[in-house]
């Protein structure tokens, strides 16, 4: 078991700053909270992507939840998704834009097809792997003379505006990670 710092245990999501991904592109981050999802061969693709994520740093996983596709209808049923949240503490800080590209490569390595060819209207889209960044922990630089932190962000964790408010399975995964014993380790 990896030792993960007490990064998430003492905050309330409602008090965190929410920013657009575009505003954070150049910001380096030290940790992220991710949402993973797959509606096709999740038992194969989730372990595969977790192995790639583990190479980037220490991680903690929530329970994997199976959820109906929220776009499914009686007229057009869709396969259930398997979703899981991941806390990833990076081995070294990395610009958010670079991390996003790394995650897109992980999706491509799982044969993720983003563009759909013109096909029959009722064809179901198979999503082998979807990796969404829910929250980021920016890299802060300490000023050695004044011991002040030099950054423009008022909070340690920032919620990605394009993912907020979180869906029910994301809230459940984030809550599980926040309250798990792993985040109570000093």
UniProtKB/TrEMBL annotation:
The keyword Membrane does not apply. Pathway: Cofactor biosynthesis; tetrahydrofolate biosynthesis; 2-amino-4-hydroxy-6-hydroxymethyl-7,8-dihydropteridine diphosphate from 7,8-dihydroneopterin triphosphate: step 4/4. Pfam families: HPPK. Its EC number is 2.7.6.3. Keywords: ATP-binding, Folate biosynthesis, Kinase, Nucleotide-binding, Transferase. Residues 34-137 form the 7,8-dihydro-6-hydroxymethylpterin-pyrophosphokinase domain. It comes from the Bacteria. The keyword Nucleotide-binding applies. This is 2-amino-4-hydroxy-6-hydroxymethyldihydropteridine diphosphokinase. It comes from Psychrobacter saeujeotis.
